[in-house]
Specification:
With about 160 residues, the chain is α+β, with helices and mostly antiparallel strands. The chain contains two helices and six strands; from the N terminus they run αβαβββββ. Helices cover about 10% and strands about 10% of the residues. The longest helix has 10 residues.
Length: about 160
């Protein structure tokens, strides 16, 4: 959050973490499959623990570290890279065990501005089995927890034009 605040001050444009709904919309890029590239995942398409398989996938390379963004050359239909695997990505939303009460407009689901409440993570990481890399997978982490497999992606708010 501090990074987004500093970036916003530096550029004069509003940056923030995505809501969970925004993150999943961006990851799916109009698809309904578990991954934006289809029904399964392979180590040629994403960075995860490929000692394990998903669906009809095969075992592959377990890199055991992060890779530079775009290493696999597989962007989704929105032009976003590495939406599956590599690092877990923070969302601004507080953790909720289900979707009951989710804001219908896709905005952040934050209760009581409690910065210590657990936060939502999406994307899976290089150290995770393939099911954790699905577009729909969600995980919880304490707001103050730091880990070498957690990162973030920022959103720059733009004005609507018609």
């Amino acid at each position: 959050m501090e990074f987004c605040d500093r970036l916003s001050q530096y550029t004069g444009r509003p940056y923030r973490l995505p809501s969970e709904a925004e993150w999943e919309y961006a990851a799916r890029a109009g698809t309904t499959t578990p991954f934006h590239f289809g029904e399964t995942i392979t180590s040629e398409l994403a960075n995860y623990d490929a000692n394990y398989t998903y669906g009809a996938g095969t075992k592959g390379i377990f890199r055991q570290k992060t890779t530079p963004v775009g290493s696999f050359g597989v962007a989704n239909a929105f032009g976003l890279y590495d939406m599956h695997g590599n690092v877990w990505e923070w969302c601004a939303d507080h953790w909720h065990g289900d979707y009951e009460g989710t804001p219908e407009d896709g905005s952040h689901w934050i209760e009581n501005d409690n910065d210590n409440q657990g936060r939502l993570l999406r994307a899976g990481s290089w150290g995770d089995n393939p099911p954790y890399c699905r577009s729909a997978c969600r995980l919880y982490n304490g707001a103050g927890d730091r880990d070498y497999v957690i990162g973030f992606r920022v959103v720059c708010a733009a004005a609507w034009t018609e």
